[in-house]
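Batch job 17 of 40 flagged for manual review because the log was empty.
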Amino acid sequence: MNETNIAQLLTDLDTGALVGTSGAGGSDALHWLATASSEEVVTLLHELAAREFVCDDTPRDAGLAAICHQLALRIRSQSAPGDPDRLTAAERAALQAVFSQLPLEFRSRAYLLQILATARDSDSLAALAEWFVAAPLSGSEDTAIALGPLMQFKDYDPGALFPRLLDAISQPATAAAVMDLANFVVREQLVDTHPAADRTTTLIGLLGKLAEQLGVIEEMRDQPADAAAKLARQVEDGVALAVALCDALAQIGDQAAVGKLYQAMELAHRRLRTEAAAALAKLGEEAGEQALLELVTEPVTRLRVLAYAEELQLLDRIAPDQMDAVARSESELALWLAQPAQLGIPPTSLEVIDERSQYWPGFDDPVDCFLFRFHYQFGDAEYTNIAIVGPVTHAFSADLEAIPHSDIYAAFAGWQAQHEDIFEVDLADWDEGLVYEAERLERLLHDAGYEAIQMIRLGFFLGEKALVARATKAGQGCIAVADLHDVFSYRTDPGPRAIGPNEAYAIYKGRKLLRSFNP
């Protein structure tokens, strides 16, 4: 029994030392969990269960989440495929003792359930379903953490989860993920019959209720910012569940769902319209097929529509220019921009401004690369920029409109580049040797006509050194990059979207990479 590591881990938890850690970081005691014995894990869990956890104790919640995540990784690394003893009965009982102690808002509850999901034996899955329903998680992100492993593996018996897990569809925060999992086990042929096949009346009623609520929200405009944000979250959660319900009803094949599916297809949200149309088409409704053929012209739904069209043998009814590489890339960008982590909604318009096949770092063969200009219209306000699709889908916040296409490609290539010999050192971390190197490059900038030079960082690129600095030239502020062979700069116009040190150095790296790959 390694009592020292257990004691250290508990101390780290109580002092907040585990905050921000994961399986790849943190204290030595946290790392020790990867090789801990079952007896040691049970002892640790009993110690945790004896502690009093209180609401709003964020550091201990985060620390406990790190411990639970490491325990899930331990199961992944120590057990062989098909091993029925990934989690012992004693470990499971100790986990339940901890789970029952935690406040309902603790995110660590999700990571604790993740341990059961990772184990995947029938007893653990039955416990997961029971705990999940009896003490629901507080958000869709927590639900994704808890159930995520079950969407990654196919070596478990869904009969241990269902039908009990379906009782969680009464909770808005958990309903969509539960239905997605039920649809997954059908699609992956882990079951012969949809787990919710005997609950179609409930599913149809729930879809109708959601369609009505979303229809009311669509009519609500000019809301204050806080109210608009709340409505946006309601729409996101409602659409996620409605999409899962459309998928489930199509898989179940109950004609009684047709009416509510038509109701959902009339809503403005394009993803939901696509799923409702596909479900109707699978149920033999010609109107569903026709709606899919119309939705293929919308970039944000095109890739999804094409997948359904192939499944339903409708591709011969779609124009070729809606299926070519440009159209698919346009759709990929629209989906990326519509993600909550990006701009959250599809762009008003998209225009391909350059396309070329070129060698790209990390790829053995030439890659088709596309630059798109995307445009948003927010009332009287506009937002426009350039994005890449191909080896990566990405856009900077800095405005790239005014620079050559070759440098735009270089910016994305340099941003994406990862190599142990490609890195930067900021001015605050320079030693005497780096100061000497920087001053030598600073003189090159002076000789090239730059003034008021403010050094920012040194870049190291496969043995070469480059200075990144703020400067002026001919009275114009700029970001300059200089190595022993070349100097270039970009103007720093006023505003938050000017090209800054990060983008300029990315262009520097990308230029060298693309020139070496594409002589």
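Reviewer: the log was empty due to a logging misconfiguration, but the result itself is present. The longest strand covers residues 367-378. Unflagging and moving on to job 18.
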